[in-house]
Give the backbone structure.
Amino acid sequence: MTLEEFREARENVAESRLGFAVMAGAVDTRDFGFLFSGLQDDPDNLLPERRRTRDALVDLGRAMNAGGGGDSDIPAAYTYFGQFLDHDITLELESATLPDLIAPDLTPLGRAEIREKIRNARTATLDLDSVYGRPAPRDGEKMLVGKVDESSGGRPQGKDDNNDLPRRGRNPDDRALDR
């Protein structure tokens, strides 16, 4: 197979993939939702709202957080790659403003409040917006390249200055763009 035949085949696959998305219907990729959306509507499905329930949940959380199991046999690259995938697909910014989960007066948030407050700041697709920002570049032939930062010790031997990811500083005015 020649390079040109490969490119043509890849384009055909990309075009047919778009057709599948249209057939499946639109999916909200910006907001989080409930796995079982109707479950909360029936009070019989909910835990009793009592102090004892809250205390039992806190005890369960502490038991689940009781020390690690030592080193894993799984290579560390899996952890880093998994974190990268997670951070490119999801970014939730509002949990810092939600009530403390171990506060004595913890009361469950209502469904409407959860839907209103907890939003996904990422595109929910693996498009590298966590690296490049939004909108992520759409050129499949080349990734976006930035200048080598002087603080990193300069460019690698034998390379030019265009040998790094684009870098942006902190953005306190827009947390979604914060790096």
About this structure: The helical segments are 3-24, 51-64, 76-89, 111-117, 129-132. The longest helix spans residues 3-24.
